[in-house]
Amino acid sequence: MHGVEPAAMLRQDPFADVQDLLARMTGLIQPTGETGAEGPWVPIAEIDEDDDGYIVRLEMPGIAPDEIDIGIRDRELCVNGEVREEEEGSNALRVRRGRFHYHTSLPSDVDADNVEASMDGGVLTLRIPKARQSQGHRIEISNGKSKSERGGTKRRS
């Protein structure tokens, strides 16, 4: 530590730099919901895939379904809305306020016309089915004989 006097080091809070770094890292991982100059906050999300489609879950505690707008355009899922100030006398606690925005690109095999959305316990769940033609199917392998040779009727000309 060149150029720093020992007495100045004693007056400095040894954890101030670590706390500042932690605060900045937390802001990157979980943006604040303050309104104003900052942009919209992003809800915590997870995406799972099963044989039939994709399941997107977004944490939105205390947000009413009528405050949420969901859309799919050009394989882009967008979930937007705004958390308004609570009415006077409300007991609801909100970590975030203001606009929120979540978007993600979807695979090309989604059936965007049959998306289902539900809200339970502060979690928005979107079920996005795969298109029928992309779900695939099992192809049986025969023992080397054609259908007609396995007992079907043979045609003779």
Describe this structure in words.
The chain has 157 residues and is α+β, with helices and mostly antiparallel strands. The chain has a domain at 32-136: Immunoglobulin-like (Sandwich), CATH 2.60.40.790. 13% of the residues lie in helices and 29% in strands. A 4-stranded antiparallel beta sheet has the order 1-2-7-6, with no helix packed on it. Strands 3-4-5 form a 3-stranded antiparallel beta sheet, with no helix packed on it. A hairpin with a 2-residue loop joins strand 3 and strand 4 (76-83). It is elongated, with a radius of gyration of 28 Å.
Brief summary of the model shown:
By secondary structure, the chain is α+β, with helices and mostly antiparallel strands. It has 2 helices and 7 strands; from the N terminus they run ααβββββββ.
